[in-house]
Amino acid sequence: MTADHFFYQQFSLLNDEQKAAVLHVIQTFFGKKHPDQQAKVEPKPDKRRGYGSLKGKIWMAPDFDAPLEDMKEYM
Q: Considering the domain boundaries, does residue 20 fall inside one?
C-alpha cells in the first residue's frame, strides 16, 4: 500500500468537518491559506537607519551623575 493510497483511504473515512481541518493543516504546512484568511501584509520598507539618525531625540539631564538626596545617608 502506497502512502498516497493510505492517505486517501483514511481521508475518505472522515466527516466534512474533519476533512476541512485536515485541509487547513495541509494548507498551513505548505504556506497556502484560503483567500478569506490571508492577512494583508504590507511589505516593510528596506530603509536602514544611518549613524546619527537619533541625534537630538535622546537627552540626559545635566545633573545625571549628581548624588541623590535619598542616598546621602549611605555615603
A: yes
* Alpha carbons 23 and 32: distance in angstroms, whole number: 10
Q: What confidence tens digit (pLDDT) does each residue in 26-70 have? A: 888 877 655 655 566 677 777 777 888 888 888 888 988 888 888
Rounded alpha-carbon distances, angstroms, from residue 5 to 12, 30, 42:
11, 20, 41
Question: How many structural domains compose the chain?
Answer: 1
Tell me how far apart the alpha carbons of residues 33 and 42 are, in angstroms, rounded to a whole number: 17
pTM over 0.70: no
> What b/e readout covers 19-42, taking b as 16+ CB neighbours within 10 angstroms?
eeeeeeeeeeeeeeeeeeeeeeee
